[in-house]
Amino acid sequence: DKVFAVIGLGSFGRQLCSTFIERGASVIALDNQAELIDKVKEEVTQAIRVDTTDNESLALVPFEDIQTAIVAIGENIEASILTTALLKRKGVPYILARAVSELHTQVLRQVGADEVVNLEIDEGIKIAQRLAAPDISDRFQIGSALSLVEMKAPKAIQHKQLHSLDLRNRYRISIVAIYRSTHSVDEVGNPLKEQTVLFAEPSTVLEEQDTILIVGKNEDIDKFREL
Amino acid sequence: DKVFAVIGLGSFGRQLCSTFIERGASVIALDNQAELIDKVKEEVTQAIRVDTTDNESLALVPFEDIQTAIVAIGENIEASILTTALLKRKGVPYILARAVSELHTQVLRQVGADEVVNLEIDEGIKIAQRLAAPDISDRFQIGSALSLVEMKAPKAIQHKQLHSLDLRNRYRISIVAIYRSTHSVDEVGNPLKEQTVLFAEPSTVLEEQDTILIVGKNEDIDKFREL
Ligand SMILES: Nc1ncnc2c1ncn2[C@@H]1O[C@H](COP(=O)(O)OP(=O)(O)OP(=O)(O)O)[C@@H](O)[C@H]1O
Ligand SMILES: Nc1ncnc2c1ncn2[C@@H]1O[C@H](COP(=O)(O)OP(=O)(O)OP(=O)(O)O)[C@@H](O)[C@H]1O
Q1: pLDDT in tens, A99-120
Q2: What's the average model confidence in pLDDT over B146-166?
Q3: Do B197 and A124 make contact, defined as CB atoms within 8 angstroms?
Q4: pLDDT for position B220
Q5: Residue B156 and residue A187: Cα distance in Å, rounded?
Q6: Which of A14, A17, B124, B154 could crosslink B227 through cysteines, CB 3.0-4.6 Å?
Q7: Cβ atoms B57, B51 nearer than 8 A
Q8: What is the DSSP pairing of strand B26-31 with strand B3-7?
Q9: Which chain B residues in 26-65 lie under 8 Å from chain A, judged by CB atoms?
Q10: CA of B80 to the centre of ligand 2 (A)
């Protein structure tokens, strides 16, 4: 059973706590502001008010149980760095820390963070990529090689059974799923639109309004989009 | 050709600018701090120093060309709200705004934002989900129904051709790709480990060390993981 320590209960830290609890893990929440400890204490396993930059105060924290600590302090760079350094000294096996600049990232790694995340950079990349590719309603990078992309089914591959198109060999892409809208009418004649999700089967035939979920390398997906 | 306006050049706003430019779009960058305008002016299409809460100052901005505006102001809630309201009044077709709280989200929608993002909430969910599922090396939510999950191939489905397992019908999951490690030796006898990515084919046979990429609804994936 996983035990996480979350240091810093701003919106990022509090969201980490809720999601961990939702997924069945234990959470020890730390912050030096009493009102934030009060805010989370009913929800988390343990909430301890402590100044995490002070080695002696940290004696109150059960580090023997903690496998992963997340330093969710954003603005206070000094507190973020000092807390990370102390957690490393206490022997926490895995430390993830939030950084708000490149220099902050470098120093966090130098004092012992195993992983550093910059929320503004990550979300900036994700949101701009999504908005800049209008024919793609969603796009995910899976590992370094593959991408998963949601897009309208190209005309060239509609109205034929998928196995006859031999897409994996011809274009090096694989259709994973299809989103199909079905139009009907309710009891009083109002148009009803429903969306079903189907797995791609060899016998599947794509229709005009279908949205397809495809997997492949980025360069192969870009070629396929030009169809 | 897409034209984006980015209001607010903090790290989030500047990352949006870089990624848009990288993907071939045009960017009009706005901020009232001269040093931030100087920072981006070589990189973006046009950088204009302006107080975006002032209707008269906005006369300098070529709104006729702008299809999408992103209000990347985080901390200054008043500026974020007033800017969004003015962009709506100027008729910008699509406005995405950053919010830092639930109330802020509500008000942004009320004054005309088409989409609102809370970076701390989005990243808190994403990071906690990833850390809380150790047998899953990666997990993506695709739309509201499907999940994409990377996991070790369960023993029960190894050493048989995929088509004979009939996974889509029996477990309602579809294997999309396989990550396979190949072990060899280099010229001086050192072990060499390489990873190849293969699409799942009906004739594919899973091996012990394979990692599989599967798609399905969350509840179906959870059942499948218990195999
Ligand atoms: N020395 C410290 N010991 C314990 N907690 C600290 C310390 N310094 C800062 N914190 C806590 O870290 C939390 C997060 O700090 P941050 O400055 O990132 O706040 P925030 O901007 O509200 O966060 P978010 O961006 O997640 O909304 C705050 O609640 C603060 O009390
Ligand atoms: N009225 C305004 N007109 C134009 N720009 C503004 C206005 N108010 C704020 N800004 C700009 O918005 C930018 C982002 O504001 P924010 O308070 O989110 O800064 P930040 O915390 O540095 O951002 P980030 O979290 O992205 O690093 C700042 O550069 C600021 O100059």
Answers
A1: 999 999 999 999 999 999 999 9
A2: 91
A3: no
A4: 92
A5: 48
A6: B154
A7: yes
A8: parallel
A9: none
A10: 9
